[in-house]
């Protein structure tokens, strides 16, 4: 019987063969989630689309009230009225006993204290410890809630008349404390700070009697004031400051305020007062003109417009909300479908990769969310110019290309406008800034160049804001503030993009041109090791890089990827460099080895290279060059050597072939050709342009006929362009030189493995 854990595992187990990266179900789910999330950010129903403020001109047609509605007060004014009402309510207190301190309480305390001292004195005479005797622990514990052990010791000295620093006796101390606690001091003592009373009067509830208004609040005191009054009276009898402190502790322990703050009753009074405040200042009757075309909007007109919008929104029923939400979804759906069509027909590689779709979706949702938040910020500032649409534009240009970024930028600008209730001004301004941002980073060579986009965006935002402001005849001060916020956007966008770029590269494992350029640095540990341990292979890789870069540029492939792939394609040779001909200076280690063993040593550099690449966290796009540049080709030299040694025996070529896979991209296909051609042309004696061209033709034809290029999408047209690029580079490398006598002695015949 299966356990609960096993059943749980089976329940969450994905279907066999499920591939999230290419799953159509996952693709559909990504689209649905994106549409729903963005739809929820679109604004609620608005009956007045025009933005209006006090002092602006009503540009639309006359607005006639279709029904009667109240004119609501300005929210700020209404809240101020409620605050004034709250402050005008007198706080309510419940009256308890008139006396806050009873003489009986103090008498009982002092009798207990005197009893303890008397017992302690007797124990001390009998050398039984005095106050430190365990017999007095219980009594002292009861007194400890009022006085500390040090305080009790001080009073004990006074009791025994051993404290020569003061002339007061214990009985005089007791009388002073009791006199300070006279009843007439303690009427109208409140249990909260007097400073917390905001009104000039208080209300007092006496038992079950109706709430009565008191005199001015100056007629009551709080506990701090009471203690200060007691302290002043004590000073007349007790001169020693130490005993004054002890006396204050005793009095404080027995203070019981007689006026207790009643929060519930006070809040009820406040609520009743607020409920009496009307939230309207008039009414607009049906068919009454709210505002006429070209009329300036004053404060009264704005209150009418705000009230009309509020009432109209309240009148919407469930059906209206449903229709509205359908409209929202359709708006986002149209934009999503346009994006999907673009990706399907123009950027199919992205469309087929669900991870990349999630990346795009996250950036679009991020921009939409910032636009949504901008509506919630109620400050007197153009915060809409802090919607960082350009962050997404910069990231998409670096992560993918400028064409995709341009298209998604248009989609983002439309979404921002829709979320902000048809604010196409900000859409236009954002678009101008984003286009220049895309332009500034499309040929980026290092990460620091991201920050140069600041200048371009600043120009875009400034000019577009100025153009819109002049068209609307806005105040110069308002235009300058908008330009300032556009400048802040321009400054922050590159910084945010820089941080997010690292996040997206690592999360989605994207190899950008920036990453490739960083990997092309010869100070990289793998390249440094290759140059020191296998200098021949390193030189071979450099020449290959030049060949592949030129060929990739000729056919429109990623030239940077092709070049960097060449640098790392043979890194596995660093482990056994002496077994490869380009690194051998004198003795060939394969001369005395079995061809089978030699083949295994040669082929092993692929596996070794992959392990090294993963150890140094090279991107998968670079790792792919290591096995694909050989594909499933035959190690022909050792295969033919084995056949020669076997003579009449049949030799299978299986163990003499590289494991593959065959090249899957144009770049890996180019590198395969460059690898074979570079090695082959090195072996040409007396190279001439014609010999080089013939050798290139032979290699390309051989790889084509072997089927090694079947999976990399290289066309005949591409191969022709690649050939011409190779010829140009190799002819330049192998152009004719004058041979000196010593040169001829050093020449040796190269072998190709």
Description:
By secondary structure, this protein is mostly helical. The chain is built from 31 helices and 10 strands. It folds into 3 domains: 92-269, no CATH class; 320-477 and 496-503, no CATH class; 515-746, Hypothetical protein af1432. Strands 6-5-3-8 form a 4-stranded mixed beta sheet. Strands 1-10 form a two-stranded antiparallel ribbon. Strand 5 (201-206) and strand 6 (212-216) form a beta hairpin. Helix 2 runs parallel beside helix 14 (354-376) and helix 22 (535-555) crosses helix 28 (666-682).
Q: What's the quick description here?
A:
By secondary structure, the chain is mainly alpha-helical. It has three domains: 92-269, no CATH class; 320-477 and 496-503, no CATH class; 515-746, Hypothetical protein af1432 (Orthogonal Bundle), CATH 1.10.3210. It contains 31 helices and ten strands.
Determine Rg (CA atoms, Å): 45 Å
Number of domains: 3
Overall SS class: mainly alpha
CATH class of the largest domain: Mainly Alpha
Q: Provide the residue-averaged pLDDT.
A: 83
Unreliable residue stretches: 1-13, 742-753
Q: Return the CATH architecture of the largest domain.
A: Orthogonal Bundle
Specify the number of helices: 31
Main beta-sheet annotation: 4 strands, mixed
Strand order, largest beta sheet: 6-5-3-8
Query: What is the overall shape?
Result: elongated
Strand content: under 5%
Distance between the termini: 59 Å
Question: Share of helix among residues?
Answer: 55-70%
Number of strands: 10
